[in-house]
Amino acid sequence: MEDNADDEALTLRALARNGIANEVVVARDGVEALDYLFATGAHTGRDGRQVPVLVLLDLKLPRIDGLEVLRRLRADPRTAPLPVVVLTSSSEPTDVAGSYDQFANSYIRKPVDFAEFMSVVRKLGLYWLILNVPPSQGED
User: Fold this and answer.
1) 20 to 30 A from 24, CA-CA: which of 8, 14, 54, 71?
2) What is d(CA 19, CA 11) in angstroms, rounded to the nearest whole number?
3) Does residue 8 contact residue 14 with C-beta atoms inside 8 Å?
4) Is there a contact between 130 and 22 (Cβ–Cβ < 8 Å)?
5) Which of 57, 70, 68, 7 is nearest to 27 (CA)?
6) How far apart (Å, rounded) are the C-alpha atoms in residues 135 and 14?
7) What pTM value is reported for the model?
8) What are the residues whose beta carbons fall under 8 Å from the beta carbon of 99, sequence distance 6 or more?
9) What's the domain range around 117?
């Protein structure tokens, strides 16, 4: 979930350059993110059982902020196990603490340098999309 068009384009470019071929759905505010994840509003009719492998969440979203999106994800049994990586420009201690209080899986501050950002996205993709085993796949 990303509200900044430049950050969105940079993230999508970094994913593509690093060979991350997963489908990416971008929500530009907290309401759109929740509607997509819960198949409500503009996304009514979408199969709500189809959840993402990973949620990259910015905290500074319009309409409903990222911490509230995270709180709602964790409060619902359908989305509670979703891996959520907070990827934000904020280094505020209250944002870090608030994210972990709402059970974020990771908190990563967006680097300003493009090469460093590419490295971060590559590592995120490698770990969360290739190495990590989500709960639904880990069940026998």
Assistant:
1) 71
2) 12
3) no
4) no
5) 57
6) 27
7) 0.84
8) 59, 66, 67, 70, 86, 107
9) 5-131
Sheet holding 55-57, edge to edge: 55-57, 84-88, 106-109
Q: What is the pLDDT of residue 24?
A: 86
Report residue 131 as tokens.
């190495």
Backbone CA torsion sign across 32, 34, 39, 40: negative
Residue 111: CATH number of its domain: 3.40.50.2300
Specify if 53 maps to a domain.
yes
Q: What is the pLDDT of residues 5-57, one digit of tens each?
A: 777 788 888 878 777 777 888 999 999 999 999 999 999 999 888 888 899 99
What whole-number percentage of the chain has pLDDT above 90? 49
Distance CA 35, CA 43 (A): 6
Residue 63 CA to residue 118 CA, distance in Å, equals: 29
